[in-house]
Amino acid sequence: MKERFENLTEEESACLLPDGLVMLGYRGSIAHGTYLKPDNPNSVDDKDIIGVFIAPLDHYFGASLFASRFRKDHHEAMIREWDAVSYEFRKFVGLLANGNPNVMSMLWMNCGNFFFVKKPRTRLIENRHLFVTKRVFESFSGYARAQLEKMTSFTHEGYMGEKRKALVEKYGYDCKNAAHLIRLLRMGIEFLREGRLNVFREDAAELVEIKAGRWSLDKVKSEAARLFEEGEKACGECIFPVEPDMGAINELMLRILKEHFGMRTWPSS
Q: Could you report the per-residue pLDDT of 101-127, keeping only the tens digit for each?
């Protein structure tokens, strides 16, 4: 992992990531194959990474259990071009059950997009069918609607750098939000039909065109409207369960934690 953060000091790397990581990989544009390097005039991309960590044993049982709800269940840091978020394992599994687009992608990403993985990811991938539900499309389409709203809001929110603000003013809408919008809808529809997430995008070149402002706002809105309609139809035809089996997911989560801590049984509090 050191060579991937060679532009960061040891102290900066320590701030970027929490202890106890069991998997770490790229998310966002690098994982999707749509990353634009900083020297590209239309580039507003960071190097986004996502991790999962398992907390110390006393976080999960015993006298510390009552206090554990006050502990942070995620870690976020942004240093230079690196934008990192990591989730505590139980939090991560909960997000999987809700069909969160960012975390769901970790179960279908190419191995080359991971910095490292440990056994918990293998166990999750072996059981990823537990997270294949219609709720995933609801989550993806919900995120897409948020991108559609932000695309033309012109609020110049705090996450925007000056370069991105300038591009919004140049093209009349936020092209990066537009690319997210189209990608999320396409991924959600594919999931309903195939039961898997196509994280690395075969349509990457087209998504880069959108991000670079080569689509008019009307074309983006027209394609989004078509995809929303197609998604609703696909959802109606889909035979996946509406909700996940939380009992089975909970059993899986406990089995992974027991294995991680080398325990045959789960202690009583």
A: 999 999 999 889 999 888 888 999 999
Residue 51 has φ and ψ, to the nearest 5°, of -135, 165
To 10 degrees, the CA torsion angle through 80, 56, 105, 151? -50
Give the predicted TM-score (pTM) of the model. 0.89
Contacts 24+ apart (CB under 8 A), 61-70: 61/266, 61/267, 61/268, 61/269, 62/267, 62/269, 63/269, 65/269
Helix H or strand E segment including 189: helix 175-194
> 123 near 145, Cβ under 8 Å?
no
pLDDT tens-digit readout, 194-213: 999 999 999 999 999 999 99
How many Å apart are CA 196 and CA 198, to the nearest integer?
A: 6
CA–CA separation, 145 vs 222, rounded Å? Answer: 14
| Token representation of residue 45 | 């991309």
Q: How do the domains of the chain map onto residue ranges?
A: 2-131+243-261, 135-237
